[in-house]
Amino acid sequence: MITIATIVEDYGRRFVVKTDDGLLLQANTRKKRTDFACGDRVHIQQLNDNQAVIEDYLPRNNILFRQDIRKSKLLAANVDQVFIIAAVIPIPNHDLIQRTILATVAANIPAVLIVNKNDLPDNNHDIWEKYINLLSTPIIYISALGNIDIVREKMRGKCNLLIGQSGVGKSTLTNALLGEQIARVGDISAKETGCHTTTHTRLFNIDNTTTLIDSPGIQSFGLHHLKNHELANYFPEMREFLGKCRFHNCTHRNEPNCAIKTAAQEGEYPMERLLFLQKIYNEINQ
Ligand SMILES: Nc1nc2c(ncn2[C@@H]2O[C@H](COP(=O)(O)OP(=O)(O)OP(=O)(O)O)[C@@H](O)[C@H]2O)c(=O)[nH]1
Ligand SMILES: [Mg+2]
Ligand SMILES: [Zn+2]
After folding, report:
1. CA gap 12, 15 in Å, rounded
2. CATH fold of 2-57, please?
3. What are phi and psi for residue 54, nearest 5 degrees?
4. DSSP E strands, 109-191
5. Is pLDDT at 257 greater than 90 in this prediction?
6. Which CATH architecture fits 228-284?
7. Ligand 1: which residues within 6 Å by Cβ?
8. Which helix (H) or strand (E) holds 261?
9. For residue 195, what pLDDT is reported?
10. What is the reported pTM?
11. Nearest 5°: CA angle at 66, between 285 and 18?
12. Which of 24, 46, 59, 161 is most buried by a 10 A CB count?
């Protein structure tokens, strides 16, 4: 019998699905397919009381993924909102944060930056302020160990994905939102770089209308799926300068009379962002 279910746990090759009746089933795919993600609505064939086979996914509203030269990694499907989590510890990887933002813009999913561990001393907010222009929503400063009502409010009624470096507190926040210690939390007090505590992506129900996907920490974010001619469009703060370069197909690298380079040189556009754009251009054209 074919039934519809949602993927609630993604172990890469095997999955856990939840039927619309609330039944949890261990699920494999046919022909070792791995092109499924947490949040996917799928057709399943139920085999017995606790096993099923995933036949295919239903049309997706969106899919967030990263892609390096050889392979792509699906992060989650059908999410309404991505929360990019960062903190002062582990040391923030700003390249990774910018890449994640770029991927969410390309996937057309609104993103919010959560700066966690605000209870720690030396929490200088200045380093985060640059992201305000890159996100349509302001940055939220929280401590997952303290009051998280502002996050709960923002998540209400939506499917939310938590993504970020290992050790920033994604699972701690997940547990705080759930009101119980379900997701495993790692101790990084001895290691600044953090260790990967969460090893698979998992979807939780916060209430009847709100879901939350906790994911393993990421170290890199390949953007090989982005196309050359679209890239600049994914820099929302760059839009006012686009179309003003001498060449309509300007890549904003070595071309003469590039409006963005000029703006950056004159301090009207952040040089850091132009260099980031050029870096991604060079990377996807290798
Ligand atoms: N001081 C402080 N520590 C926090 C906060 N949130 C999380 N931590 C600590 O940070 C460490 C890592 O937290 P996790 O929730 O496991 O981090 P994670 O992002 O899920 O890590 P991965 O699963 O490896 O990706 C734990 O020791 C938490 O107790 C916070 O708001 N303040
Ligand atoms: Mg975790
Ligand atoms: Zn240009």
Report:
1. 7
2. OB fold (Dihydrolipoamide Acetyltransferase, E2P) (2.40.50)
3. -85, 125
4. 111-116, 140-141, 159-164
5. yes
6. Orthogonal Bundle (1.10)
7. 116-117, 119-120, 143-145, 166-172, 185-188, 194, 196-198, 216-217
8. helix 259-265
9. 61
10. 0.94
11. 155
12. 161
